[in-house]
Amino acid sequence: MKKSAFAFTVALALAAVTGCASTTTGAAEPTPTPSVSASYACPTMEGVQLPPECAPYDPDAAMAANERYRDRMGIDDEARAAAEDAAPDIVAVLRAAAAEKELSADEVAALLVEAGALSPQVRAEARSVLFAVTGPEGGCLFGEVAGTSVSVAVGGYILDGGCLPAQ
Fold first, then answer.
1. What is the overall mean pLDDT for the chain?
2. Could you tell me the pTM of the whole model?
3. Which pick of 25, 75, 80, 121 has the fewest CB atoms within 10 Å?
4. Would you say residue 53 has pLDDT above 50?
């Protein structure tokens, strides 16, 4: 293909993509009539008609969707089984240390690493330490150390990423 033919083909393709090319036979297209578009959001309320400049939304649904980042994804059977096999070791290490003294977040993190846990995440709460680790074959082990009590559960990653939800 010659250089000028190639340039013409490219120009024609760009014109078609950007809307500059016309395939009409000369008949004028009707001019679209302007419509009112929403300029701000308004909560829907039963029995109340919203003005046309409002974009309606359901505040309860919006609040529920705002918490979705905490939801957990699914976990396959192999990853769940591997995580459940690792859970008793983690509980034993944390329980033994918690029996001696109240544990800080740093101490819980160090104990999790010593127990072979992957990617520990910890957060101190008022009277407990929340923790989460990546399971041996994926998924998460997450739980809490509160005094001498230790709890661990198994599940998938949270939608926000990682194993421990943000505050």
1. 80
2. 0.61
3. 25
4. yes
Does residue 57 carry a pLDDT above 50?
yes
Residue identified by tokens 């990853």 is 79
The sign one gets for the Cα dihedral 81, 84, 89, 93 is positive
Q: Please write the tens of the pLDDT for every residue from 126-135.
A: 899 999 999 9
